[in-house]
Automatic annotation (TrEMBL):
Record InterPro entries: FAD-dep_OxRdtase_2_FAD-bd, FAD/NAD-bd_sf, Fum_R/Succ_DH_flav-like_C_sf, Fum_Rdtase/Succ_DH_flav-like_C, SdhA/FrdA/AprA, Succ_DH/Fum_Rdt_flav_su, Succ_DH/fumarate_Rdtase_cat_sf
Predominant subcellular localization, coarse grouping: membrane
Protein name: succinate dehydrogenase
Domain Fumarate reductase/succinate dehydrogenase flavoprotein-like C-terminal: 531-665
Pfam families linked: FAD_binding_2, Succ_DH_flav_C
Cofactor dependence: FAD
Cellular-component GO terms for this entry: plasma membrane
Topology in membrane: Peripheral membrane protein
Location in the cell: Cell membrane
Length: 666
């Protein structure tokens, strides 16, 4: 099968509008006869479900949580990008497009990224109309802050709760359609297979997580919006329930999986403290607006801090190494996430880490508190030389911007981040890889669409901060409602899809067989035992830095671990009841396949780009070294029964509007 991205012809800035002018439409009367399944109700799924129902389609929406408002999008903190140029600092649609392609290390599809930048402006208007309480300046205008990898302020935010507020906006739109009967909501349901009829996605097999019942649901199209696969590492910033199952089941039915090795390590997370942890906590990248990142410049000071003999506040200014400001003077603390993460790892590997494990750096707000305090003192005609007054005024400003994040940090670490610098370290966060989709957001399965983090389309090898929420809402509110109509126009005479077809029988049999095996296996080790072992292999050999030897070993070790899992996992309880251990087992089984493909993809890509860093391919000063001649393509993998046997398909990335250059933030 040859990959066809279906990118429209014509100038970049006209592609989307010209495309919309010539697509097929479904009239309102016919929309009432068409069913669409939406799996996942985060920002991408929630906005898609609400918009499709508003248009008149009959929507069935599925989430494994007890409510759509608990989707993991709620955890996004820092903000959402849009090229409104409210700050008058030179932003534009083209600038957002350029920053996104550059931030992704020139491994994204131009047409999709430009469309994303183009519709970003509409997202803010949509959300304001829904009542999303974005931060505002004194005069009432929407406020913006800057994020990593850019030199403008284009990020709209609601303190450190932006994802939550945006999700509540989408959830309210969904509730309106649920009330009208246009959305049938299936809470506490998990998709365990996708059903293809005559090669088209026509339904799913889902498990009711409350009573264990296996259900068949049919539709004319299936939309997968189930987020990323960062939990393949076990420890990540993702919610414990976040998983790859829906996307992986579609992959096994024929949807190509693109760029699985493009996984983002976020630089500002609360460090690991021991083996007892089950997840990690993110500190928003927005903190890098005002926080300065440093480690002791002297080895003896770093050792003294680790041993508890010295406090960070006792380190003189001249004895601090603000290493991001030193290495990247143009961007400083606002370099992209992949660059900041590798720089932190380099300092800690060199012995300058500051917590007991040696894997932490400082994020310090003392300078910001003083700067804001003096500014406020001048505004209110107070004494800017009064240190106590300046501290109080500055702290109030910082608290107003980031207060809930500081509160969260203090509850977890038991230290006051206003007076003692935060400790941070990189952790697995976001996945740029995902199911391959064309310009219409359709996968290689006809009728199966993939939105948001579950697809690969918009970020290349690294995602800029505050762009995840932008992509999710762009896909759901402003892209899919057009593109899916062009496809569904052919189904206005199809009629309802029956669920007693042989294809549904086979898919349900497949699901029941897997569940029965896990329940009856009666092994000796828990699901978490295998998940943690997988996570350690992934972090040690497929993590922030990779090499051919480690990746080859990882593939073999994961394959062996998968074999052990099926022989020796123990799942207590029954399949006909609420059983979270069974839920985990089904998800980990998929991770044990994805992990091997992940390593295979990283091994084949003999270059460093964005979040994929091969130790064999770096510059003299430790920066990523791309190979545009041989690897300027999307790696889309076709399932062939075993991850090691997956077949590579390439979509060449053609850059007509941006020149491929070595990415530099210096």
């Amino acid at each position: 099968m040859k990959l066809d991205s279906k990118i429209p012809q014509g100038p970049l800035d006209k592609k989307w509008s010209e495309y919309k002018n010539h697509i097929k439409l479904v009239n309102p009367a016919n929309k009432r006869n068409i069913d669409v399944i939406v799996v996942g109700t985060g920002l991408a799924g929630g906005s898609a479900a609400a918009t499709l129902a508003e248009l008149g389609y009959n929507v069935k929406a599925f989430c494994y949580q007890d409510s759509p408002r608990r989707a993991h999008s709620i955890a996004a903190q820092g903000g959402i990008n849009a090229s409104k140029n409210y700050q008058g600092d030179g932003d534009s649609v083209y600038r957002l497009f350029y920053d996104t392609v550059k931030g992704g290390d020139y491994r994204a599809r131009e047409a999709n990224v430009y469309r994303l930048a183009e519709v970003s402006e509409n997202i803010i208007d949509q959300c304001v109309a829904q009542g999303v309480p974005f931060a505002r300046e004194y005069g009432g205008l929407l406020d913006n802050r800057s994020f990593g990898g850019v030199q403008v302020s284009r990020t709209f935010y609601a303190k450190g709760q932006t994802g939550q507020q945006l999700l509540l906006g989408a959830y309210s739109a969904m509730n309106r359609q649920i009330g009208r009967g246009k959305i049938q909501m299936y809470n506490r349901h998990e998709m365990l297979d996708i059903v293809l009829v005559d090669g088209k996605a026509r339904g799913i097999i889902a498990r009711n997580l409350i009573n264990g019942e296996i259900e068949r649901h049919s539709a004319h199209a299936v939309v997968i919006c189930t987020g990323g696969y960062g939990n393949v590492f076990f420890l990540s910033t993702n919610a414990m329930g976040s998983n790859v199952t829906a996307a992986w089941k579609a992959h096994k039915r024929g949807a190509y999986f693109a760029n699985p090795c493009y996984t983002q390590i976020h630089p500002t997370c609360i460090p690991v403290t021991g083996d007892h942890q089950s997840k990690l906590t993110l500190m928003s990248e927005s903190l890098r607006n005002d926080g300065r990142i440093w480690v002791p410049a002297k080895m003896e000071d770093a050792v003294a801090i680790r041993e508890g003999r010295l406090k960070p506040t006792q380190i003189a200014e001249e004895d601090r190494d603000y290493y991001l400001e030193r290495r990247y003077p143009s961007f400083g603390n606002l370099v992209p996430r992949d660059v900041a993460s590798r720089a932190a790892k380099e300092r800690c590997d060199a012995g300058y880490g500051v917590n007991a494990t040696g894997e932490a750096v400082y994020l310090d707000f003392a300078s910001a508190i003083e700067r804001y305090g003096k500014e406020q003192a001048r505004i209110h005609h107070m004494d800017e030389n009064d240190a106590k007054l300046v501290y109080k005024l500055g702290r109030d400003v910082v608290e107003n911007k980031y207060g809930n994040l500081f509160q969260m940090y203090e509850k977890i670490v038991d230290e006051d981040p206003y007076t003692t610098p935060m400790m941070i370290y990189p952790a697995v966060h976001y996945t740029m890889g995902g199911l391959w989709v064309d310009y219409n957001l359709m996968s290689t399965i006809e009728g199966c669409y993939v939105l948001g983090e579950a697809n690969f389309s918009d970020h290349g090898a690294n995602r800029l901060g505050a762009s995840a929420l932008m992509q999710g809402l762009a896909d759901g509110y402003f892209v899919l409602p057009y593109t899916i109509g062009d496809y569904l126009a052919n189904d206005i005479r199809t009629g309802a899809i029956p669920t007693d077809l042989p294809e549904f029988d086979a898919a349900e049999k497949n699901v029941r067989g897997m569940i029965d095996h896990l329940i009856s296996n009666n092994g000796t080790h828990s699901v978490d035992y295998f998940h943690k072992k997988l996570g350690k292999i992934m972090w040690d050999k497929v993590g922030m830095a990779r090499n051919a030897k480690g990746l080859t070993e990882a593939m073999a070790e994961i394959a062996q671990l998968r074999e052990e899992f099926y022989k020796d996992v123990k799942v207590s309880g029954t399949n006909e009841s609420f059983n979270q251990e069974l839920e985990k087992a089904l998800r980990v089984a998929d991770y044990l396949e994805l992990g091997e493909l992940f390593a295979k993809d990283a091994l084949h890509r003999e270059e460093s780009c964005g979040g994929h860093f091969r130790e064999e391919h770096q510059t003299e000063d430790g920066e990523a070294k791309r190979d545009d001649e041989n690897f300027a393509y999307v790696a889309a993998w076709e399932y062939k029964g075993n991850p090691s046997e997956a077949v590579l398909h390439k979509e060449d990335l053609v850059y007509e509007n941006i020149k491929l250059v070595t990415r530099s933030y210096k």
